[in-house]
Specification:
Blueprint: H1 4-16, H2 23-55, H3 64-75, H4 88-93, H5 95-107, H6 111-137, H7 141-153, E1 158-159, E2 164-165, H8 174-189, H9 193-206, H10 208-225, H11 229-249, H12 257-264, H13 276-295, H14 303-325, H15 334-337, H16 344-364, H17 368-389, H18 406-417, E3 423-426, H19 441-445, E4 448-449, H20 455-462, H21 467-476, H22 485-492, E5 499-503, E6 514-515, E7 519-523
């Protein structure tokens, strides 16, 4: 009879021979999935950096001058003095300035670094949304990668006649609303109603104007997805009816001359005033998407056809509203101020996704040299165009670097050497001066200044309560470089201006403690 010890050993030997489930084997699919997603996220991150390098980075240029001023005013409420009235409306309608101010205050992070980090994150989010949309529109990898790479390379493309880029080379509320809009379209295509509504709410928090167009696209896309011709026609009719109601509601409202001037300074509000190439730029995307939807309507994967069809209906509806209700000599310009052609930002993104997918699947295929040659040429060409657009500034104005732009150097001197409550005057068109590169004075100098015609005029065109004051201030600073000192003092006296920024070539007898090759900063009194 075997001993107890021998019996235990025999049982242990038998148990060791039983088939066991490998812990490593059971977790390997999860590990592989996690590893694949991590690699894909890292690849998108690298592509985001490349896209930013092509597009450039100018954190205080164009509309960023308004948004960054809003952030700084949210951090320091007393900043900008009397010109705060031009910034306040953006603080009220967008979460972006307050959110950024809270992050800067909570983390004690320099604003310049936060802006650059958020630029990378929003670019990554946009490319992630493009990739997810491409996966739903195309079955083959080369098609999906063609869609993603073409969109990433073309982020600096301007949307015809709308004063918008696919992705701005600076951070604004649109930096958030654009990728969120694409994610809302994806949720709509997936039939996820609650997720779609949640994303639309987020878009509204960052950009209340763009949420109107994102919601319109979602509504048209939803009806197209369920193959409801009546529903699609009804969605387009509802949009036209809303525009008509807004237009008719203003029939007894008398617009001020100042507001008419503000709206008139935005030529792109009126489709009839566009140049021929801008008109071509609004028709061509609809033709490309319409042709794709027609030729691929019988394919097994119909998501791309649905997206293209919805974009065409939305574009045609926007064009109709702009032509009928957004006219320069109309009794009301409220519809024009709402910019009904802004949905073409999303339509352009859809066009580049579809076009890139077709090119990748039918032309590039698996030929590595074709991919490198095509996208290398596109990236080099658009990078050169962006560098030329900001010719006096670095392609990447990274935080912590010294600016080579003479205007920025003057604005920084003002920030460091003038009283915080000083009031400045610059020529009404200073932002278009040679070498200025559309750099925002208030965002960089952190000083109060009279209104300009360009960016402040856009604010007055959208928020008509600003128009009268804007008109008075920009009239006082019109042609400021070419008049004499006596007239400058006469014009600027009602606004209590202390300092004036002139071109170096301007004639003046004032004391100018700062001068460089582009501008001089002078004491008015």
């Amino acid at each position: 009879m075997p001993s107890f010890r021998t019996a235990v050993q025999n049982h242990a030997t038998a148990y060791s021979r039983l088939p066991t489930r490998s812990t490593e084997g059971s977790s390997s699919p999860l590990r592989r999935l996690f590893s694949a997603r991590l690699r894909h996220a890292a690849l998108l991150f690298l592509l985001s950096l490349i896209a930013i390098a092509i597009n450039g980075y100018h954190p205080y240029a164009e509309d960023a001058g308004i948004y960054v001023s809003g952030i700084k005013q949210a951090i320091h409420p007393g900043l900008y003095g009397s010109s705060a009235y031009l910034i306040a409306p953006y603080l009220r309608v967008s979460l972006f300035p307050d959110l950024s101010a809270w992050i800067v205050t909570a983390l004690h992070l320099p604003l310049g670094y936060l802006l650059f980090i958020m630029q990378i994150l929003t670019t990554w989010l946009l490319l992630y949304a493009c990739w997810e949309l491409a996966k739903r529109c195309f079955a083959r990898r080369e098609e999906q990668w063609g869609a993603l790479l073409l969109t990433a390379a073309c982020l600096s493309i301007p949307v015809a006649g709308s004063s918008l880029f696919l992705m701005d080379p600076y951070l604004t509320g649109r930096s958030f609303s654009t990728p969120l809009s694409l994610l809302a379209l994806i949720a709509c295509l997936d039939g996820q109603l609650r997720r779609t509504c949640l994303l639309l709410v987020l878009i509204g928090l960052f950009h209340p104007l763009m949420v109107i167009y994102a919601a319109s696209f979602v509504l048209v896309l939803w009806t197209t997805r369920i193959h409801s011709k009546i529903g699609t026609a009804s969605a387009c009719a509802i949009a036209i009816a809303c525009a008509a109601a807004i237009h008719l509601s203003q029939r007894h409202f008398v617009e001020s001359v100042a507001y008419q001037n503000a709206v008139g300074s935005r030529y792109y509000f009126f489709l009839a005033n566009w140049h021929w190439y801008e008109q071509f730029g609004i028709v061509a995307p609809l033709l490309i998407l319409g042709a794709y939807a027609f030729w691929h309507r019988g394919r097994a994967l119909k998501t791309g056809v649905t997206l293209a069809t919805g974009a065409v209906f939305l574009g045609l509806t926007s064009m109709f509203i702009a032509l009928v209700f957004a006219r320069e000599h109309s009794h009301s310009h409220l519809v024009a101020a709402l910019q009904p052609l802004r949905p073409f930002l999303l339509i352009y993104l859809c066009m580049f996704l579809i076009l890139g997918g077709v090119i990748g699947g039918s032309i590039l295929k698996t030929s590595a040299w074709r991919w490198v040659l095509l996208f290398g040429a596109i990236a080099a060409g658009l990078s050169f165009v962006q560098h030329d657009a900001y010719s006096a500034s670095r392609q990447l104005e990274l935080p912590g670097t010294v600016s080579q732009n003479s205007w920025v150097q003057a604005f920084l001197w003002i920030r460091d050497n003038t009283p915080p409550n000083a009031v400045f005057a610059l020529d009404a068109d200073y932002i278009h001066a040679h070498g200025e590169d559309s750099q925002g004075f208030r965002a960089i100098a952190e000083r109060d200044s009279l209104a300009d015609r360009s960016k402040d005029g856009g604010a007055a065109a959208v928020f008509r309560q600003l128009a009268d004051r804007w008109m008075a201030e920009q009239s006082a600073t019109t042609d400021l470089n070419n008049i004499d000192d006596a007239e400058r003092r006469t014009r600027l006296a009602p606004f209590h201006v202390d300092w004036i920024v002139l071109n170096t070539s301007s004639s003046t007898q004032m004391h100018c403690p700062f001068t460089n090759k582009a501008v001089k900063v002078c004491r008015l009194r």
